[in-house]
Amino acid sequence: MTESFSPLVKDTTKAQSETIETVVSRLKNGRIYIPDYQRDAEQWNSRKKSIFIESLLNNLTIPAFFFCEDENRNYEVVDGQQRLNTIWQFADDNFTISNDSNIEYIAPQSALYGGKKFSQLNQSRLTKHI
Question: CB 3.0-4.6 Å disulfide test: which of 41, 100, 117, 130 passes with 85?
Fold first, then answer.
């Protein structure tokens, strides 16, 4: 006996590129949300957070975020919670890029952001597409 397989998601999937500014705006207004089933959002230490933010500041490629659009056109986070949480903390000035000399940043650019909060940087640097 052969059963037919039917995918859980019936709609087509799509890929799109958004700016960090758009993602932060959606986080602020609740259009992107982290569901209860996700693990604790504080898994990354300051080293990981700092290196991730450095990647954004230097326009390096980062892994994609995965969302599920709900019936209200809001986006439930399926994958990328740690990265989104780090972006949110940094954009909201709740996170300072580590100035630890043991972190191997990209030199000489790191002198421009090591030990700084978002408000202390040229904010147009965080308009990278994700």
Answer: 41
